[in-house]
Amino acid sequence: MWKGRFAQETSALVQRYGESVSFDWRLYAHDIAGSIAHSKGLVKAGILTADEQQQIETGLLAIRQEIEAGNFEFKESLEDVHMNIESELTKRIGPAGAKLHTARSRNDQVATDVRLYCRAEIDRIRSLVSAMQAALVECAERGGETVMPGYTHLQRGQPVLFAHHLLAYVEMLNRDSDRLADCRKRLNVMPLGSGALAGSTIILDREFVAQHLGFDSVTQNSMDAVSDRDFVAELLFSISMLGVHLSRLSEDVILWASAEFGFVTLSDAHTTGSSLMPQKKNPDVAELTRGKSARLIGNLMSILTLIKGLPMTYNRDLQEDKEPLFDSIDTISLALEVFTEMITGMDVNAAKTTAAASDPMLLATDLADYLVNHGVPFRQAHEVIGKLVAYSIEQQRAFGEMSLEEFQRFSPAFAADVTACLNLETAMTARKGIGAPSPQNVKSQLARWRKALTTE
Ligand code: ARG
């Protein structure tokens, strides 16, 4: 659009290669907000009259409305969203429009737009995370005091409450949300006014402009400001971590929904059939989410690799930051929404989980603790119970079916009250230390989360 020193038109192929408007058009609202704030700065600096600023603002708002109504034509020949909007504005309002780009470069402009975009998306994603946490809490509450085995190495370890297992994910999601909030804090700094790389001889009140855009402060080094994409990498890491957590939950749900476990039932609306096997009910939502986490990690790798070899300051490579960013934001948003729905429709199969948790072997640790309470050092107690486990397997008789005399063959510390610790309910109630899954603890954790999630 601006020919300047160029005698030749850009080759059509180069235009196609270099255009970004086909994807960066989605920055339009932030680009317009940035331009309006900049125009106010230009008035304060005496570059624009109040009337010119008014023409710019009205023109830009009209353009925004047209974009939102789907009546605006973005042109590939104008390369990116910034030039499309500015050139249309100038076409409409003339000289005032041509003054808008004073003391500004697309380098500080795009850095500003992307930060504004990330800020808004972080707020949106965090509310989706809260909704998902609320769905997990609600599903946990529906499960009541249902017990299930807790696993390490995918081997049955100790009994837990189903709710305790789900609340583990509520904790993970909370860290994800905090990470996003932290990332937001660091990116809420305005690069506008850094120009191409060295600011401008026309001095703008950057803090005044920043205030208009809701930034907490302004960047302090123009070279860093135009080339910094740390915030994109941080955001993509935070999103990847969130995706990895969803992927872990996916894996649990996939196992639970299998005939081998049968721990949960997913609603028909969130499963799919097989084109060949009529009996199938597949947990596709969970599988897709596990799969999509790979994309999120890939996008993070793209941005880190993109940045690593760049000399100061802005390089056109940086245009490649947008597609991975947009893709991760779209992917995680949909994953959170669909997962929230799926969890809302998921029911625990208490009969199955309780049967699995009633495996007496799950209380072997409780028996060792019993001996410890009767004065046996833990290492020794562990050894004694190990032998008792082997005996139980060999005899094909559960702990509960053994006589006191048999117990005492392994340790004289056993007394008649040993049967009490073989009761699942007693065993659960006994796990009452902070963070452990006693029904009382789980109840107060559920209450804590319900309160935290409704007062947000
Ligand atoms: N579309 C470009 C980007 O996203 C805008 C900045 C272009 N700056 C430049 N000097 N060519 O990075």
From TrEMBL:
GO CC annotations on file: cytosol
The reaction(s) this protein catalyses: 2-(N(omega)-L-arginino)succinate = fumarate + L-arginine
UniProt-listed Enzyme Commission number(s): 4.3.2.1
GO molecular function terms noted in the UniProt entry: argininosuccinate lyase activity
Pfam families in the record: ASL_C2, Lyase_1
Classification via InterPro entries: Arg_succ_lyase_C, Argininosuccinate_lyase, Fumarase/histidase_N, Fumarate_lyase_CS, Fumarate_lyase_fam, Fumarate_lyase_N, L-Aspartase-like
Keywords: Amino-acid biosynthesis, Arginine biosynthesis, Cytoplasm, Lyase
Domain Argininosuccinate lyase C-terminal: start-end pairs: 362-428
Tagged with keyword Membrane: no
Fumarate lyase N-terminal domain span: 4-298
Main location: cytoplasm
Gene3D superfamilies to which the protein is assigned, alphabetical: Fumarase/aspartase (C-terminal domain) (1.10.40.30), Fumarase/aspartase (Central domain) (1.20.200.10), Fumarase/aspartase (N-terminal domain) (1.10.275.10)
Pathway(s) the chain acts in: Amino-acid biosynthesis; L-arginine biosynthesis; L-arginine from L-ornithine and carbamoyl phosphate: step 3/3
Family membership noted in the UniProt record: Belongs to the lyase 1 family. Argininosuccinate lyase subfamily.
The protein's name in its UniProt record: Argininosuccinate lyase
